[in-house]
């Protein structure tokens, strides 16, 4: 016989015995609760002053017996439902209330979170007999995010309650199946995005557009975007406790399997939030790391991403099992008393050390290649810019190559270098690199340091901006900031306003705008090729200014030097 769940402290032995007897009750499949069971639960409630409930399966067998306090029941952990599953739990909650009251917010939370077939609350009358009955079930027809997602029914007593719980549950499941069938299948899951508006809603919404793009790139379907305006981040849950509960319910109702925070979570926050929800909890950095992991193809790229992921995970690992000390002492020569957590942590650290060594080795051969290039005295142009700005498209167009171009963030992770020949037989090496993003995770910057170091050799940075993006100014600032962090503020650069074809007046329109604002920059369309001639002219001017190149590295190449 399974144990009674919940608050049994202080109960008399006779009361415990009668609670145990609950296991022997059975309910007909076509009734929500039998009169005997209702009478039994109400009598216990009358005597103990506590809510008493049972979880009943579709055959009518009792699976759990639960005791709460005067106002609520804490249900046992019955595990998570599989993501995207349109079924209900196959269990209904039948429990008592101490007085005549409708379903409480806690009842609704249980209904939604555990995806119960049904929640039933029975009034305990002052004489200890069952009184009014309140039912609630999920509503497959509710669609709007802020719409009520459950339906309730009320009966004056058990005898007037005319509900076949199994038939109802099957009907609901069919309706949920239809509701979800029309949707696109997303392999990586469905998410709710959560943002905290600290500096007003407009700013939060702008960054949320980007989070949405990141999610889309990662193959995640975004079900809804939720904001909370706050003065500051909640130290435990980022958003307020009530908001979290609301999110939780919404996630359940809409078959979401994760929430993604636009705010980076501390290890402790991540833990608190996942303790309070039944969902996978991600933050922006993790999402970016996942995308990098999906897009890393070269050996070096993979090493770098794994390193970044492990560095991100290490402090979280340390948080997770605090207080839990499972002894595994003595195995494989490890000292006795070492906890599983310590072993995990050490494994991760060992792996990190190994990855660092390997990356160093790859970095060394990269250095050799770099030196060779430098020795040849060919100017190097690096294309930098926000992710998805069109850097690879530009490289392809200029050099007739076929670097992968995609309408995804971080399509390029591995740098590619190509030769580019100017008129008068001048030649340069032009490189395309990983895109930047606002608040680029530090673990990634560090892991990609080797790749980014190549930028130090650049004699000219082409900073490509997606001029068609409403957030282009913020993106430019983010790129400038990262360039500064990399110590590249003194490298000559040229602003390139790309995707001009998407703007009114095309390249000429943008040119006029730039002139009107006395702003520097060359408008182009890397897609159509418009403006590229002008771009090459400006590039040439900058590199071979007065017959000599201006180089950040102090190198110089003569106008007539013969490359390679
Ligand atoms: N309309 C238009 N689309 C462009 C232009 N240049 C690039 N794109 C599109 O923008 C998207 C991103 O282009 P990419 O060249 O992959 O951008 P990227 O900067 O290399 O991006 P990451 O490598 O992901 O950081 C693709 O869908 C391109 O087709 C342009 O001039 N006009
Ligand atoms: Mg690219």
Automatic annotation (TrEMBL):
Gene3D superfamilies: 6.10.250.2860, GTPase HflX, N-terminal domain (3.40.50.11060), P-loop containing nucleotide triphosphate hydrolases (3.40.50.300). GO terms for molecular function: GTP binding; GTPase activity; metal ion binding; ribosome binding. GO terms for cellular component: cytoplasm. Keywords: Cytoplasm, GTP-binding, Magnesium, Metal-binding, Nucleotide-binding. InterPro entries: G_HFLX_dom, GTP-bd, GTP-bd_M, GTPase_HflX, GTPase_HflX_N, GTPase_HflX_N_sf, P-loop_NTPase. It comes from the Bacteria. It is found in: Cytoplasm. PROSITE patterns: G_HFLX. Residues 379-547 form the Hflx-type G domain. Monomer. Associates with the 50S ribosomal subunit. Belongs to the TRAFAC class OBG-HflX-like GTPase superfamily. HflX GTPase family. GTPase that associates with the 50S ribosomal subunit and may have a role during protein synthesis or ribosome biogenesis. This is GTPase HflX.
């Amino acid at each position: 016989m399974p144990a009674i769940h919940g608050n049994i402290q202080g109960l008399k032995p006779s009361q415990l015995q009668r609670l145990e007897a609950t296991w022997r009750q059975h309910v007909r499949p076509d009734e929500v609760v039998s009169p005997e069971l209702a009478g039994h639960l109400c009598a216990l409630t009358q005597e103990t002053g506590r809510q008493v409930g049972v979880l009943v399966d579709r055959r009518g067998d009792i699976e759990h017996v639960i005791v709460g306090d005067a106002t609520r029941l804490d249900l046992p952990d019955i595990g998570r439902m599989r993501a995207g599953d349109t079924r209900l739990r196959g269990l209904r909650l039948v429990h008592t209330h101490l007085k005549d009251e409708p379903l409480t917010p806690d009842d609704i939370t249980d209904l939604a979170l555990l995806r119960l077939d049904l929640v039933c609350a029975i009034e305990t009358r002052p004489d200890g007999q069952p009184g009014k009955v309140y039912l609630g079930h999920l509503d497959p027809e509710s669609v709007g995010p802020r719409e009520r997602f459950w339906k309730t029914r009320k009966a004056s007593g058990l005898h007037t309650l005319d509900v076949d719980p199994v038939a109802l549950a099957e009907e609901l499941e069919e309706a949920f199946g239809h509701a979800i069938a029309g949707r696109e299948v997303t392999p990586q899951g469905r998410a709710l995005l959560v943002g905290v508006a600290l500096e007003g809603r407009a700013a939060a919404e702008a960054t949320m557009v980007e989070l949405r793009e990141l999610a889309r790139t990662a193959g995640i379907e975004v079900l809804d975007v939720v904001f909370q305006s706050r003065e500051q981040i909640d130290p435990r849950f980022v958003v307020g406790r009530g908001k979290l509960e609301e999110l939780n319910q919404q996630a359940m109702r809409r078959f979401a399997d994760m929430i993604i925070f636009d705010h980076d979570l501390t290890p402790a926050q991540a833990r608190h939030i996942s303790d309070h929800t039944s969902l996978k909890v991600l933050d922006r950095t993790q999402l970016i790391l996942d995308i990098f992991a999906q897009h890393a193809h070269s050996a070096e790229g993979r090493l770098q991403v794994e390193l970044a992921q492990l560095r991100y995970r290490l402090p979280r690992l340390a948080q997770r099992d605090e207080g839990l000390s499972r002894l595994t002492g003595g195995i494989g020569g490890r000292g006795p008393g070492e906890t599983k957590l310590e072993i995990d942590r050490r494994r991760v650290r060992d792996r990190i050390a190994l990855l660092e060594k390997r990356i160093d080795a790859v970095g060394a051969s990269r250095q050799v290649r770099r030196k060779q290039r430098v020795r040849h005295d060919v100017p190097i142009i690096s294309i930098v810019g926000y992710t998805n700005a069109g850097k690879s498209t530009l490289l392809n167009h200029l050099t007739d190559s076929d670097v992968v171009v995609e309408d995804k963030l971080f399509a390029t992770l591995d740098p590619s270098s190509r030769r580019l020949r100017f008129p008068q037989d001048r030649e340069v090496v032009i490189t395309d690199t990983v895109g930047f993003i606002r608040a680029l995770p530090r673990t990634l910057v560090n892991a990609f340091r080797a790749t980014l170091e190549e930028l130090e050799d650049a004699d000219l940075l082409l900073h490509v901006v997606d001029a068609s993006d409403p957030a282009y100014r913020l993106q430019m600032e983010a790129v400038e900031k990262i360039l500064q962090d990399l110590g590249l503020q003194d490298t000559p650069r040229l602003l390139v306003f790309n995707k001009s074809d998407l703007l009114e007046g095309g390249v000429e329109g943008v040119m006029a705008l730039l002139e009107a604002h006395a702003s520097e920059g060359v408008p182009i369309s890397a897609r159509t090729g418009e403006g590229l001639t002008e771009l090459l002219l400006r590039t040439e001017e900058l590199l071979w200014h007065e017959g000599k190149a201006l180089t950040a590295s102090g190198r110089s190449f003569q106008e007539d030097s013969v490359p390679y």
